[in-house]
Amino acid sequence: MFALVNGTIFTMSKMGIIKEGIVLVNEGKIVGVGRKIKIPDEAEKIDVQGKIVFPGMIDAHNHIGGHAEAEDPPFDNNEWTSPVTPHVRMIDGVNPLDEGFQTAAKAGVTTIFCTPGSANVISGTAAVLKTVGKTISDMILLDPAAMKMAFGRKFPRPSSDIPYPATRMGTAAILRNTLIKTINYLKKKRKAEENPEKEPPEPNIGFEYLALVLQRKIPAHVHVSRADDIMTFARIADEFGFNWCIAHGFEAHVVAEELAKRKVPVVLGPIIYPNFHPDIDWSPEIAVILHKAGVKIALQSDGPAVFPTQHLPLLAAAVVRAGMDEWEALKAITINAAEIIGVDHRVGSIEVGKDADLVIFSDHPLKWRSKVEKVFINGKEIENLENRK
Amino acid sequence: MKIENNHFAIINGKILTMSSLGIIDKGTILIKNSKIIAVGKDIKIPFGFEVFDAEGKFVTPGLIDAHTHLGIIPLRAGYPRNEGNESTNPVTPAIRALDGINPQDPGFKTALKGGVTTAMILPGSLSGPREKLNVIAGQGTVVKCFGKTVDEMVLRHPACMKMGLGDRPKKTFSPSENQLKMPSTRMGVASLIRTYLTKAKYYQLKIEKAKNNSSIDVEIDLEMEALSALLRREYPARIHAYRADDIYTAIRLAEEFKFDLILDHATESVVLAEEIAKRNIPVVFGPIMHGKSIFELEKLSPDTPAKLVEKGVKVAITSDHPTRPIEYLTYHAAIAAREGLNWWEALKTITINAAEILGVAHRVGSIEAGKDADIVIFSDDPLEPLSKVETVFINGIKRYP
């Protein structure tokens, strides 16, 4: 049991900013937040006067552990062999000892949405991981957390022999076909359950995972940027009635109202990245437009290779510089990210009952001088976990 | 107020001169005919000069990015984007960045948005595992970031000879076991540089002899001419090297052939900081805001600039645009500052140090009388991530917003 005392607490909840506040932690959970919290005698007091206490940051779209740090390809996050691979799971491709986790954790990024890449139309299941642990089981916060899908520009494949739809029409058709097959599979399964004389379908892992999407137990996490591709996906999601969120979304602002109406959130970015898209003119102002339209946004690094995960606060700074409200930008790397990836009951803000994932910044997190001084994950200071390798 | 005429004064701002004048609080800068004519605290504004009030703002010289591919690896052009490197041959010294720069590339607008007014444009590539780079890649060009034609933008050309060491040139020409072409090893890379510089020395000798003997005919060879200019120290070599052993290979080659050397990226340069400092070799470091996306970047660390400067190495910090968008050049310097580099030194890496390394410090890089009126007005300390570029002047003319 310990208490962080005298710090400025950015709760990222309705409690806002608490000056000279107390965060009380017991057995990995936050048990008290506020100015007048009684600190039990057995609790160790950690004085964080003049510092900022921030919730562990969350990167809502990331590839650490699958896209290995300081290695050359091939990586373990794109199962290229078919455009439809709902049966593969990110957790089977993540190396918990990859240096990227430690780099992220030390920088205060304590939770990531770890997802397969965008090589396939349906790429596999993604998981939400804490950035510390020796085995994947230590790290899993939620699995499966979503089904990764990808629309739009064809991802450059390592060989032209690898099958992929040739057009956007083909991409859409593959998704619709696969979802129809899933429905047929589920029908057959249900009939066999209702009537023991009926033959059940041959078990199919991929359909089982897609069933979770159709039953709204997990969302689709969709790599998509161009507005027409977004609306194509919306058309299919409306047809089949499932939940989804946009990843990247560099042209999402064009259809912001459509997204707000459907309550589709956007995991935007990485906003600091060169724009090679031939038909999209993106800028950090997208975040401002989306927010004004009422779309919930998180900011993603797409790390470790696209934008380095450890600099996540700079992505928030970039959108504030472009006109975004500061508190909203900070929410995009904490509570909004948690809500979008389905783990806000555990992380994303400093509230009683949540995991004690806490970051001590020396100064305001969006200032250049601000250094991450301490990081706690599940109430444990990460320095103490460094000998895991 | 609208500033279009070329006679004006910027007043009341906090001027970061980036010269020995240091910081001038509530200072005045006089600009006339594209040049800075005076900087200081008690400067009388001559009759007819318009006044730009920069009260509460930070005023800096136009920022300089010492290593970019602006306009030759275009934005919004889709994939593959292989225009940065002439990958048909590992040795292409006659290639000029000048001939591949598109001034309409949206990258130049983003440069201004980030306060960058001068950039070195080099042949070469991004930092991905499949990107290409020649052993001797060609000539770099220093430009101002505004203009309709590249010719009016040029500040210095030719400004350097770009070379590449390590995995990148190896993999460009020997991408797999089935496709082997020299170089396929680091030894091969170095031997190509030595071979061609030896040829250039021989070519120079022939030219010398022909001057005094009309019976000797020497065919002009553009590649040899370009390498001869390097050997005559008319411009430096800019050598792409990540690993410490590659950095030392660059030093070994520079000492053998007596050319001026500037190290680019220099990821593992801390290992050799004393060696680099002793020889006065500048380092163009970065990009810092970058992942360890390839094996050679294994030791990439944001505290390297601080450690190099501490040992006395002159450092510029780069975005390597479009590897990282040039709009965020200040973020790279800010990270270096957070990791221990003195604030003023961090600002120097994107202003005067870069100008000196590029050989254009007589024109740009600081706010001093006689220099080009390339000036940026920031809303706050330029290293603050929330600080906004509000106005950019190039040659005394407002070019942003």
The helicity of chain A comes to: 25-40%
CATH architecture of the largest domain in chain A: Alpha-Beta Barrel
First and last CA, distance of chain A = 26 Å
Order of helices and strands of chain B: EEEEEEHEEHEHHHEHEHEHEHHHEEE
User: Mind describing the biggest β-sheet of chain A?
Assistant: 8 strands, mixed
Q: Helical segment tally of chain A?
A: 10
Radius of gyration of chain B from the CA trace? 22 Å
Mean pLDDT of chain A: 94
Please indicate the count of domains of chain B: 2
Q: Indicate the overall shape of chain B.
A: globular
Structure summary, number of beta strands of chain B? 16
Low-confidence stretches of chain B: none
Task: Tell me which oligomeric state these chains represent.
Answer: heterodimer
CATH topology-level fold name of the largest domain in chain A: TIM Barrel
Total strands of chain A: 16
CATH superfamily of the largest domain in chain A: Metal-dependent hydrolases
Give the C-level CATH assignment of the largest domain in chain B: Alpha Beta
Q: Major β-sheet of chain B, in short?
A: 8 strands, mixed
The chain-level structural class of chain B is alpha/beta
User: Helix segment count of chain B?
Assistant: 11
